[in-house]
Design goal:
mainly alpha; 68% helix; 0% strand; elongated
Length: 190
C-alpha cells in the first residue's frame, strides 16, 4: 500500500465521476480566476486612460480571450449540477418516470448539439498550435492558449454529458437510483 488510501469498496464508475467532478471544479476555478483577472485588467486600463492618457497593451484581445475561458471552462460543472436552462412548469407536473426519460432526451439532444462544436474546437486548437498564429497587437499574443482552453472546456462538457446520458438512461430503466436534484460530484472522489 505504501501510504495509499485503502479502497473503500466504491465502484470504478463512482471514482471516475468523482475525478471528473474534481476536473470540473478546477475548470470552474480557472473560469472564476479569468473573470477576476479581466476585471482587474479592465480597471487598470480605465484608470490609465483617465488619469494618464495611456492604455494597457492588447486590452481587447486579452479580455476577449479571458471571457471565452470564463464562459466555456465551467460548462462541465454546470452540466454536472444540472444548471441547464429549462422550462419546468410542465415537466414537474409529469410523473417521475416520464421526467427521467425527458432527462435522457435533454442530455442526448445536448450531446448531439455539442459534438460538432467540440470537433470544431479541436480543429481550431490544432490549427492554432501547428500554424503558430498570433493576434496582431503590441504583445503579439499567440492564439493557441485560448483555443486550447475552449477545446478543454468543451471536451470536459462532452464527457460530462456522456456520463449523464449513461447515468440517466440507467436511472430511467430502474437499474440505479436517480441522483438527487443537486449534489456535489466531487465527494465521490474522497
Amino acid at each position: 500500500m505504501n501510504g495509499a488510501a485503502p479502497d473503500t469498496g466504491r465502484s470504478t464508475y463512482a471514482k471516475a465521476r468523482g475525478l471528473l467532478g474534481q476536473v470540473e471544479k478546477l475548470l470552474l476555478d480557472l473560469g472564476a480566476f479569468a473573470i477576476g483577472f479581466f476585471c482587474v485588467y479592465i480597471c487598470i486600463g480605465i484608470l490609465l486612460r483617465y488619469f494618464f492618457a495611456s492604455q494597457v497593451p492588447d486590452e481587447v484581445v486579452i479580455v476577449g480571450e479571458l471571457m471565452v475561458a470564463a464562459l466555456i471552462l465551467p460548462l462541465g460543472y454546470v452540466a454536472a449540477e444540472r444548471g441547464f436552462i429549462a422550462v419546468e412548469l410542465l415537466t414537474n407536473a409529469l410523473p417521475k418516470a416520464v421526467q427521467r426519460w425527458l432527462n435522457v432526451l435533454a442530455v442526448l439532444v445536448g450531446l448531439l448539439a455539442t459534438l460538432p462544436i467540440t470537433y470544431a474546437a479541436w480543429h481550431a486548437a490544432e490549427t492554432a498550435v501547428t500554424s503558430g498564429n498570433y493576434f496582431f497587437g503590441l504583445l503579439s499574443l499567440p492564439e493557441w492558449p485560448g483555443r486550447i482552453a475552449f477545446f478543454c472546456g468543451y471536451i470536459v462538457f462532452v464527457v460530462r454529458l456522456l456520463d449523464l446520458l449513461i447515468h440517466d438512461t440507467l436511472a430511467a430503466f430502474g437499474v440505479i437510483a436517480p441522483d438527487p436534484e443537486q449534489h456535489d460530484l466531487t465527494k465521490d472522489l474522497d
